Amino acid sequence: MEEHISFKVEIGTSSVASLIEENQFVWVHDDVNSDNFPADCHEGTIEVVLVRLNEVGCDEAQEAIEKAGMHAGGIRELLVVRALRHNSLSRALIVAPAAIWIDPETRYRYVVASGLERCGDQIGVGMSIEWTGVTWGKDTWFLAFNPMSE
Questions:
Q1: What is the domain partition of the chain in residue ranges?
Q2: How many other C-beta atoms lie within 10 A of the C-beta of residue 65?
Q3: How far is residue 5 from each of residues 23, 24, 33, 58, 142, measured CA to CA in Å?
Q4: Are 56 and 137 contacting, i.e. CB atoms less than 8 angstroms apart?
Q5: How far apart are CA 72 and CA 63, in angstroms?
Q6: What's the mean pLDDT when you consider all of the chain?
């Protein structure tokens, strides 16, 4: 693994909708919701690992994360990490490689990403979806995690 940051967080049973509301994002894409991104994730304490993988796509990132023995992060893990309001991560672009949605009309695959967004005259953290075929640059963090034994 290239550069990474790790820390422990507690994943509870909060819904995707309540976590989105709690985060007070400046903008959230309409398709980022509980219907499109069900909250399949581990509950309890996890070690979050944010990994930089230069010039890779979403599928390549997920493969690298799994090869390193970790789980790719989903939407609930991403929302919990954003709720921490970590100063070092406030401007970071974070992709949750396990948060995949297939648009029923176009059949395109999308992944959830969170980073700085502009909404009117406000700039702040938002939630968007991106086509999984995008190649992510060196400033992108991919969300991975390890469950912690109780």
A1: 4-147
A2: 23
A3: 21, 24, 27, 19, 10
A4: no
A5: 9
A6: 88
- In this prediction, residue 29 carries a pLDDT of 93
CB 46 within 8 A of CB 84: no
Taking a C-beta distance cutoff of 8 angstroms, is the pair 45, 9 a contact? yes
CB count within 10 Å of CB 128 equals 18
DSSP 88: G
Confidence (pTM):
0.90
Q: What pLDDT band is residue 43 in, cutting at 50, 70 and 90?
A: confident
Residues in the chain: 150
Instruction: Name beta bridge partners: 4.
Output: 51
Predicted local distance difference test score (pLDDT) of residue 1: 58
CB 91 within 8 A of CB 108: no
Report in angstroms the alpha-carbon separations of 120 from 28, 103, 124. 13, 27, 11
Dist CA 125 CA 135 (whole Å) = 21
Evaluate if residue 31 carries a pLDDT over 90. Answer: yes
How confident is the model over 64-97, as pLDDT tens digits? 999 999 999 999 999 999 888 766 777 789 999 9
